Amino acid sequence: MGFLKKKIVSWGTSTVKAKYIHMRCIAHILNLVVQDGLKECDSSVKKVREVVRYVRNSPARLKKFRDLADLLGIEQRSSLCLDVPTRWNSTYLMLQSALTYQKVFESCEESDSSFKSDLGDSVPNFMDWESVSSLVELLKCFYDMTIRISGSLYVTANTFFSEISDLYCILNGMVEAGGAVSLMGRNMKAKFEKYWGDIDKMNLMIFFANILDPRDKLEYMPTQINHMYGEKKGKPYYDKVLAGLNELFDDYSVPATSSVSASSVSAAVGSASSVSSVSSVSVGRPQHLLKSQIKKQRLESGSKKKTELDIYLSEAIVEEENSFDILRWWKINAERFPILSKLAMDVLAIPISTVASESAFSTSGRVLDPFRSSLTPKIVEALVCTQDWLRLPNTPLCIEENLEELERFEKELVDGGSGRNFDPTLATIPVMPQHLLKSQIKKQRLESGSKKKTELDIYLSEAIVEEENSFDILRWWKINAERFPILSKLAMDVLAIPISTVASESAFSTSGRVLDPFRSSLTPKIVEALVCTQDWLRLPNTPLCIEENLEELERFEKELVDGGSGRNFDPTLATIPFMWQMAMMKLPPII
To answer: What pTM does this model have?
Structure first.
């Protein structure tokens, strides 16, 4: 890992970014944690494993078992499966499927004499099934967590810290439960603390991604860290996370700052030559007197200019919604946070689990099994490509065993191939849960009577936007319309109110400027053509000219005085600018 960091730095990457290139797979660590707990599982699990192995070892026994299940009216939704030592979730699936057929196993014990004679004391009794049922309920929490963190169609980096916090709460509950569960919990917690018990051994991207989730920010993290590491260690750990995030943000700010300064220098050099030609003061947004004084006082008092990160953290969190898309939120707010959005784009793209990628690379292993080992490379390639083409774009990779497909395969193998159609159900994206500690904090705040903030409260609590000549208030509200749907409609109506009638009066007095004493004989169609041509030639962003064109008046007066000098003079076109005259010559006839 040290060699890789040196190599990345030599390629031009900053040392700050190189610190965070190693991210441990949360699914692998969770696998190790649960496996350490299952080492202490009681004899009930071993008995269930033995009876499942006994039934599956013989096709005749398996067929007899299925016939008995049909006789008892048990729907065969899942197949009996054996666990493997390297996958704890296979133990969960084995126990879950065995519980479905509990009555079938009990019936086998009564009706089949060889069943009890072959297994002896390995046949589970009523208390064993009760123990297994409790264990399945416990393991379901870890199984659901594995499914969530192994997703391939949604961002998972922002949930890493919340999942760790939830896991810590679950393990604490197991330790306090007592009995065999307490022993399992202590073993699992020891493994948990080996990897996530010290923040110095963790990749800080775990915390950065959670902060860059606008639904969390720093709302819950201090409480979560104190709960996991204690108040004595929690405060220094929290400060370290904030310092690391500020350091990373500064690292991202350097290229942006240098590019802005370079462009401003070039703009200043380019405009230096044209300064002498400008003699009048440009009409712009002035620095109002009282506002300028307040700004000057704040600068003298030493108030520091807020960065994008400070502004983002000072804003209120976004409300929790199932339809919330974190990437879309950052895309919409990229103009407000140009540097921070790039940082979020890189951080949120980090996968917290290698399950999806490993599943993609092990596709060929699922195509080539002992029953299809003689397939040629081209046929295997065709099968893999067809699987990818038939999969819908929004269908996640199926990382768990498809028990229905295994059941169909086994049944066809026993029956000699019935050839019935099979339509496997598509996996769905799990709904993000309300994490344990976060839910408690929210509940406490609701009980304490903390009022939900309105759009207006959130808007007024945010930092003001920096003064810029290019600032467009209507564009700002358009960009932020999704954040403030009601307030943006209010702003649209209020800001549309004109505070002066000069522009509208100027528009209605256009005909008066076209029809003067020297052009009073123009026909209505010619007047219409002149007004329309004026409007067509004016640029979209050109304001209405509401002051007199002194140069045009001077030229007109001079031509009027020199009108008898013998040169041709058309009084109807005297005050029409040259571009307008050219446009009128090219206009189609008005019918």
So the answer is: 0.67
1 C-beta neighbours (distance < 10 Å), count: 7
Residue at 420: amino acid letter: R
**Could you give the CA distance from residue 329 to residue 343 in angstroms, rounded to a whole number?**
14
User: CA 368 → CA 358, 364, 407, 479, distances in Å?
Assistant: 16, 6, 19, 52
**Angle between helix 221-272 and helix 338-348 axes, rounded to 10 deg:** 130
- Of 115, 149, 183, which residue constitutes the final position of a domain? 149
Same domain, 514 and 403: no
CB 25 within 8 A of CB 352: yes
Using one digit for the tens of pLDDT, what is the confidence trace for 199-237? 888 999 999 999 999 998 998 899 999 989 988 899 999
Q: Within a 10 A sphere around the Cβ of 152, how many other Cβ atoms?
A: 19
Q: State the Cα angle at 30 between 28 and 31, rounded to 5°.
A: 60
- CB count in 10 Å sphere of residue 312: 22
Of 122, 149, 176, the one marking the end of a domain is 149
Whether 411 and 517 map to the same domain: the answer is no
- Kindly report, residue by residue over 284-317, the tens digit of the pLDDT: 455 567 777 776 776 677 667 788 999 999 888 8
The answer to whether the beta carbons of residues 167 and 192 sit under 8 Å apart is: yes
Q: Looking at the domain assignment, is residue 73 inside a domain?
A: yes
Range of the domain at 565: 506-586
Alpha-carbon gap, residue 8 to 538, rounded angstroms: 55
As for how many domains the chain has, the answer is: 3
311 vs 315: CA distance, rounded Å:
6
DSSP state of 351: -
